[in-house]
Design a protein that fits this description.
The complex is a heterodimer of chains A (about 400) and B (about 325). Chain A is an alpha/beta fold. Chain A contains 15 helices and 12 strands. The termini of chain A are far apart. Chain B has 2 domains: about 5-30 and about 285-315; about 40-280, Alpha-Beta Plaits. Chain B has helices spanning about 5-25, 55-65, 125, 155-160, 190-195, 205-220, 280-295, 300-315; strands at about 40-45, 90-95, 100, 110-115, 135, 140-145, 165, 175, 200-205, 225-230, 240, 260-265. In chain B, a hairpin with a 6-residue loop joins strand 5 (about 135) and strand 6 (about 140-145).
Chain lengths: ~400, ~325
């Protein structure tokens, strides 16, 4: 990648220097598992989008944590970059205008950018009684979503709530909260970025992927981008060695907990949750800056049916664990890459029920042993024959003397 | 010559009767079956709760000071393929077809721990000519005494589970097998494998309590949540777990006269490498036979006497002493 490739890039993107911008693009490329050279392509794609792709950010039943995580991401100037990179035309928390003005901005943007804008949804969508439990401008979010989604280029559900209901849908779910994909009736492809909150880089990388390649990234069976949600947390966990060695923290603050032992017995859901937390970390402050690293068991926020469903202290099942070395046949793309072929989960080898038996003696060994036995037998026979013959001869000789 | 043909026949007939009286009821239960000791301790292994983490193997090696076992010489980690003189506890894997679901016979997989079953009436102690292998009188643990062992390895042949292993690579070899970490009992400890099991798949305790716990687990409703004790059967430390299906059979309850190690699984036990054994122990069969033949030394005396009489009769007529 030579510098002249970027000559046409402006010196500054708003308040971001070109250097910082390229650094960010390279990091994003690495985050997506792309070759580093792709950073250039991403930068070009972003720079060539003279008209920044507009983003409509809808909010349902949410806590704004997902917006916060995006704003608190401290990669060099990423918050400013993202505000320059995409044009957030409507965001209920960040918009300067409010009330009717904000609603007007949303309508205008949708009208102008039909089929070109990215729709991001944060929060669960209540469906009970026509969705009256969450309304914006007198309109249920369910209705707003169903009007907006068909006109969007891509729909991204950020956070566990938007992905499949999250905490809003936890039992007894009084508002009938569901995720975006379900609220849309499965008609539209929704990219889920689950997490509570999700890593902002998983979101940013997905946006950049869509912008750069003009298509959706590879998704798993729960519509999560595979580049981020491919592997079990358990597989990349820094405490994994303690799990294998049977060293478990039994309660918070005990010796094992202080020494950084495995949190499985405290209810860590790492063995059944797919996410890149151990690799990506949070807040860009260095090692251990993720829940398990700080001594808090993973509660499975990015896994449907685990986070907000299972009890915090319940031990994780290892039903997704498939012993490595067993190749699963793909059935309609249902087989998880992380759970099967790419399973890096040691201990990888288990002894079979019936261990293979030895192959027996080699031909050479048999030959040598047989040869020696033959020699011994021959010598014994000859000796026996000689004994019988010598006796009568030696008898008379001794008598003569 | 004092023995007439008539006398000889009389002796032979009475000897035959005696022999017949001993052998006629060759009864499988000439020796009473050995009951479970009231204080016997053991392990309950539940394959459906096992997650294959091998923490038990790791703990076993650590607390029994066993070296790593390298089946594949290029592996630097502990990598046993079967029980050996370096491995007295192993987690094995049953695999069928696509291995998609745990604890499923077809297209599934299941873990199974293999270690000494600590039989109620062990074949190894019966076969051992010198009491090198013997059952501890209180705990019922099958113990090994290296100072008594003569290295005959009868125990290896006698054991139906293929447990005792011989140190083939040692100048002064011993038999190596699981002894339930009984060296830890005195300090209030118990089997290391159970202490480090994270899921309650292996629990230590009194065999009667373990049997009760096993029956309780078999009676649980599939899909419901139930408490599984951790580490020890009487432990207050419990873990809630969704019950998965069980095969309605406690392996080790009756097998081979019963054992102090009990196993639960959802894959037939013979598929998991555990032999199908009759409810009476092999030791009781062989000991019945031996003890019948040598009862009161009557049969040996009769046979010896008959032989003596025969030889005496055949030799006296020829002027020999």
């Amino acid at each position: 990648m030579k510098d002249r490739h970027f000559d046409h890039l402006p010196d500054h993107f708003g308040m971001v220097s070109r250097r910082d911008f390229l650094k960010f693009c390279a990091v994003a490329a690495a985050g997506m598992g792309l070759p580093l050279g792709m950073g250039g392509k991403i930068a070009e794609a972003v720079a060539q989008n003279l008209k920044k792709p507009p983003v409509i950010w809808l909010s349902g039943q949410e806590c704004t944590g997902c917006s916060e995580t995006l704003l608190r991401s401290t990669h060099p100037t990423v918050e400013k970059l993202i505000l320059d990179l995409i044009s957030v035309d409507y965001h209920e928390t960040l918009s300067t205008p409010s009330g009717a003005l904000a609603e007007a901005a949303r309508h205008k943007s949708i009208q102008e950018n039909k089929g070109k804008f990215i729709l991001v949804v944060e929060g669960a969508i209540p469906t009970k009684e026509g969705g009256i439990y969450c309304q914006v401008g007198g309109k249920p979010v369910l209705q707003i979503l169903n009007e907006t989604a068909p006109q969007a280029m891509a729909v991204i559900a950020i956070g566990s709530c938007a992905s499949w209901g999250g905490i809003a849908s936890a039992s007894p779910n009084p508002t009938g909260a569901v995720g975006v994909a379900e609220a849309l009736g499965g008609k539209t492809t929704v990219i889920n970025i689950p997490g509570c909150p999700p890593s902002p880089y998983n979101f940013l990388s997905t946006v950049l992927y869509v912008l750069t390649f003009k298509k959706l990234p590879d998704l798993d069976d729960k519509a999560r981008p595979k580049f981020a949600y491919r592997r079990l947390i358990h597989e990349g966990c820094e405490r994994r060695a303690h799990f294998d060695a049977g060293r478990f923290a039994l309660e918070f603050g005990d010796e094992g907990h202080r020494r950084g032992w495995c949190l499985y017995k405290l209810g860590c859901k790492g063995p059944e949750t797919y996410n890149n937390c151990p690799e990506q970390l949070f807040g860009d402050v260095g090692p251990r800056s993720w829940p398990v690293g700080t001594g808090c068991p993973c509660f499975g926020c990015s896994e449907k049916g685990v986070g907000f469903t299972k009890a915090i202290t319940e031990q994780a099942s290892l039903k997704y664990f498939t012993p490595a070395g067993i190749h699963l046949e793909k059935e309609g793309g249902k087989v998880r890459v992380g759970g099967g072929e790419l399973c890096l989960t040691p201990p990888t080898a288990f002894a079979p029920i019936h261990p293979p038996e030895g192959l027996g003696a080699s031909a050479t060994a048999v030959g040598i042993v047989a040869g020696l036995a033959g020699l011994a037998a021959g010598a014994a026979a000859v000796a026996a024959l000689k004994l019988g013959k010598e006796k009568p001869d030696s008898g008379p000789e001794t008598k003569k003397e | 010559m004092g023995l007439s043909r008539r006398d000889f026949l009389k002796v032979s007939a009475s000897g035959g009767l005696l022999l017949a009286s001993n052998l006629a009821p060759v009864p499988a239960l000439a020796r009473d079956p050995v009951p479970r000791l009231p204080e016997a301790v053991g392990i309950l292994y539940d394959a459906t709760a096992c997650i294959g983490c091998k923490a038990c193997m790791s703990a076993c090696k650590e607390y029994n000071h066993l070296p790593p076992d390298h089946y594949n010489p290029s592996n630097i980690w502990d990598d046993p393929i079967d029980l050996s003189a370096k491995t007295v506890n192993i987690v094995k894997l049953y695999v069928n077809g696509t291995a998609q679901a745990k604890d499923q016979e077809i297209n599934g997989y299941s873990y199974i721990r293999r270690f000494c079953m600590h039989c109620v009436d062990p074949s190894c102690t019966s076969a051992c000519p010198v009491r090198a292998l013997h059952k501890a009188s209180n705990t019922g643990v099958v113990m090994y005494d290296k100072s008594a062992c003569i290295g005959c390895r009868y125990c290896q042949i006698a054991c139906p589970y293929n447990i005792p292993k011989f140190q083939w690579d040692q100048a002064f070899p011993q038999i190596v097998k699981c002894q339930l970490c009984s060296q830890r009992f005195a300090q209030g400890g118990y089997s290391a494998c159970c202490e480090f099991c994270p899921t309650g798949a292996s629990i230590f305790g009194n065999v009667q309590d373990l049997l009760k716990e096993a029956k309780r687990r078999l009676s649980l409703k599939v899909g419901e949540f139930a408490d599984y004790p951790l580490q020890r059967v009487d432990s207050p430390n419990k873990v809630s777990r969704q019950v998965t299906p069980y095969l309605q059979h406690i392996y080790g309850d009756k097998e081979g006269g019963g054992s102090q190690v009990l196993m639960l699984a959802n894959v037939p036990f013979n598929k998991l490498g555990l032999p199908q054994l009759p409810p009476t122990s092999q030791a009781s069969h062989s000991e019945t036979l031996y003890h019948t033949l040598y009862k009161g030394m009557i049969v040996p005396y009769v046979v010896l006497g008959g032989l003596f009489a025969l030889i005496y009769k055949n030799t006296t007529g020829h002027g020999l002493p």
